[in-house]
Amino acid sequence: xxxxxxxxVQSILDAPGKFIDIAMADxxxxxxxxxxxxxxxxxxxxxxxxxxxxxxxxVIRPGSGRSPPPEAK
Length: 73
Hints:
Order of helices and strands: HH
Mean pLDDT: 89
Number of strands: 0
Largest sheet: none
Low-confidence stretches: none
Strand content: under 5%
Number of helices: 2
């Protein structure tokens, strides 16, 4: 019996072949897989861009956040 981490790694290695088999079964399946890949890739790219911008902003201007409002007298 394989351990859970080795099963996980094996399933990751098997995934591209399974996606290809599914895409070759039907033209609509190929289009759906392509659209899904574009949506996931685009969302990942936007999230990565925003995350990188936040890290760069933090490094360049560490104290540039909003200041608390002045207290009322």
